[in-house]
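Entry 14: structure prediction run for Helix-turn-helix transcriptional regulator. Input pasted below.
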Amino acid sequence: MTPEFLRRYYVLRIISNPIVYGIEKNGYVPLFDLQNALYQLRLNNIDDLLYEKLNQSSRKTIKRDLEKIKSYYQVHVLHKRNYGYYLDDFEISPVLKEVYEKTELYLLHHHAHAWKTHVTTARSSLSTRVDIVPLIQAIEHETLVEITYYGWYDDLGFKTLEGFFQPLHIKEINKAWYLMAYNKEYGVYAFCLDERIKRLQITKKHVKDPIVFNPETYFKNSIGILKSNITPEWIYIKVANHHFKYLKSNPLHHSQEIVTEPKKQETQDLDYTNPDIWGEIKVFVEPNYEFLMDILKYNLWVKVVSPLHIKEYVKHHVELMLAYY
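Run finished. Output tokens:
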């Protein structure tokens, strides 16, 4: 992240949600108020070089920033004379939402020490043998990485993997980091970047005949990191009203669609025998082990209703668990 990126990020943030920054001008942000908000952010982080460009906010600089914002994120910031900047019918696109989330996460980690009494973040399992930035650069420049990986049970049955791989993509999920990498022997493999990594060396050797990896396509029908040979299908899931709102705001999967809303959206008593508290969603996914784990974590708030063979798959695992007790 560069100081220029951060300035443009805050320019858009301030204009899109001015009230958070103490600007209450009926949705308009005069240049002076924008400059003042940026200056205050700079003042609050005076010793941090990442914020050093926030006080470079002349009219000309802001105009250039808005042109970049329009080009990068397809967000057109308007200006009304004597009123200020504003956004007309602003809706955050999936791309912009991802930028917001990743920037906020980056800033949380950037300020981790200074903010440790204000913010608690989950501990990651990322190995100290892994340096993410050079690894990302290896992906960008298509250079080989040499990996020695001591697998656990889920890794092909405690198999040790060694060799040169083309790094393809890094994905963080459930407090764990994974490197998707490829070679001819193993194909595309998901390496968990925890203590199983015994050696990870970024070489200067360029990949011969690099493969093209599209994470959106690869993970399209996956709940997590696993890519199985199981055929994806529509799975119908009933959800209790108190949790329906959560899954409506935080979908189980990007394919999620609402089939029916609960007839009773809010009830004081959680009577799971009452059919009126249940809504229904459907997701198009591979019904693999990660799908099962995701369903089980929701406790008795969700229940798979079809297809029957997936309902039986979940039921079988619940019965095995019940036998422990």
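Notes: Residues 223 and 291 are 6 Å apart (CA to CA). Will compare against the previous run tomorrow.
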